[in-house]
Amino acid sequence: MSFFLKRLITLFPVLFGVVTLSFFFIHFIPGDPVEIMLGESARVADKAQLRKELGLDQPITTQYFLFLKNLSQLDLGSSLQSKKPVLSEVLEKLPASLELGLATLLFSLAIGVPLGVISAMKKNGFWDWSFSTLALIGLSSPAFWLAPLLIWLFALKLNWFPVSERGGLPHLVLPTLTLASGIAALFLRLTRSSLLETLNEDYMKTAKAKGLSTFKIFFVHGLSNSLFPLLTTFGMVLGSLITGTVIVETLFDWPGLGTLLFQAIQNRDYPMVQGCVLFVSSLYVLVNTLTDITYQFLHPQVSVDS
Amino acid sequence: MKHWSLSLRAGIFLIFFLSLLAFFAPQLSSQDPNLIELQNRFSSPSLQQPMGTDQNGRDIMGQVLFGARVSLTLAFAVVASSVLIGLLVGCLAGYFGGWVDSFFMRVVDIVFAFPGFLLVLTLAAISQGGSLIHLVFIMALTGWAGYARLIRGEVLHLKHKEYILNSEALGANHKRKILVHLVPNLWPPILVHASFGMAMTIVTESSLSFLGVGVPPETASWGSLLNSSRHFLLEAPYMSIFPGLALLLTVLAFNLLGEGLQDQLSPHVQNKHIL
Questions:
Q1: Which pTM was predicted?
Q2: What is the rounded radius of gyration, in angstroms, for the C-alpha atoms of chain A?
Q3: Is the distance from CB of B67 to CB of B215 less than 8 angstroms?
Q4: A86, A77 in Cβ contact below 8 A?
């Protein structure tokens, strides 16, 4: 319980840091947002008008406190483009991203874990070698290359799946495949190495000495113990999922947060950009903390302090 | 000395080969990669132009070769500066401990709290139109934290070793202990981490360029090539295939190198580093 509380308490300074950093990064990076939004040749009066609208004419500390005050009321400002509140737009796009992310996770687990088990069972054999090579290629192929190839082959040539946009299950296939290539590869390698490590444990030798079947040794004793470490890498997986989502959503016209952020960047809609980054980063921190807590809960003997 | 593994040899060979191609890009490309020849649009790969031409009749191979220069140099600059900052912060934090350590590690925690790419993407977008140096700065700004954490851990581990204590007994001061005795022993893990870092940085840079906020538009880059080519998937799929292959091969090379180095230099942590 004390761990639980401690972890929750450390959450606040980190979240505060995220908030502060996302504010100051945007303000201290060279380049005048107003000039970028309106173009260098814009009239001085227009620039001043926009500067005032955005509150950029105030001293930076005032801006910061105003930002914090608004944030405490869950007000992330309004989009310059649509004039709607940033938060409601973000929440509107969230389900589409979650759908894609969840589908990717499930698919990656369904592919990565079994292949990892086979690799570990047949260590250094043909299948192990082929899967490892495949995983390395999967980890090294960028989404913005894989996606055009998949679209070209499965959508344009074979006409099996729709090219883009959100819809039923068929629409989900290509974006999920693209996103999952790297993550499934990650799961494969993690499962393999973790299972190999478990197989060396004494209790596995005991199980073997007791005369249990290979099947039972592998699946009951081995796998259940080696899947734990997968949980610790969830943060890493989530990170690559977020990165991939921005690109994959853009490629497939998927109406999620990634597309929202990218369009905001293109339209130089700074409140929206800041809101998206803040929202996703906070979500990221929260999920990571929850993962830590879950891990600790399931595996109390592991000290997370170290 | 352990026998060099296949991945280490393959990685080194590939990187050497790709660097040669990048270095000799001007000699290897038959014409100026920015030369627009509208009468020669979308020509399929041929002997003269092995990767074909794009929508403006520019030679794709030339652009891919020049893109290699940009990607490799940029990634190297980013990784080198991240390592330097990480080395400084990691050594200070690990060696002195106490509040110095707490302070720097909290900063590292906060940098890690952001999904890295998102931060880089936003910063790159805001400072758009910036130069390559700008881009290096932004990517190093988020990249150093991983090295700092790694190096701090190593320093904590090393600083109680006997040879450090001996050097102290012989009268070495802090500076000498850090620079002469600690830093040279930090290289193995740094090299492993930096190889994977190169792979990741190359992907990040091309992702940024793909999204239009990376290298300046006039600079050839694999990311921007892939972005413009995706509008011509049906008429010219080769426009997507070659820049992507180049990218895949380069990233693969650094991943192989990282893995090979890991087995070679620190067999006890084998398989711990996945990315």
A1: 0.83
A2: 24
A3: no
A4: yes
